[in-house]
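Lab meeting, item 3. Inverse folding demo.
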């Protein structure tokens, strides 16, 4: 019974995601006001010539810092899990 509930839940979630994904049009943004603002005011507000770099580092700096922190934490965690143990270290099993 438990497997049936889990299977039904997964199926409903997959169908919901598929329904939303099929309904979206590819390459058509829903909101363009923000894009127009960045293109028209980006250079004067940031002083940079590359609008992509200006958006990533100036307008969305905290978001980029958060993504870098998550990436660093993931790499550090994977390094700790897969590190080579020394000869004097013992494995602990329960």
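The presenter then showed the designed sequence:
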């Amino acid at each position: 019974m438990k497997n049936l509930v889990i299977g039904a839940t997964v199926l409903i979630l997959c169908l919901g995601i598929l329904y939303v994904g099929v309904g979206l049009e590819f390459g058509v943004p829903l909101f363009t006001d923000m894009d127009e603002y960045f293109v028209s005011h980006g250079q004067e507000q940031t002083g940079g010539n590359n609008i992509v770099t200006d958006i990533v580092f100036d307008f969305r700096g905290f978001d980029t810092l958060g993504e870098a922190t998550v990436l660093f934490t993931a790499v550090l965690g994977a390094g700790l899990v897969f590190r080579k143990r020394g000869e004097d270290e013992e494995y602990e099993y329960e």
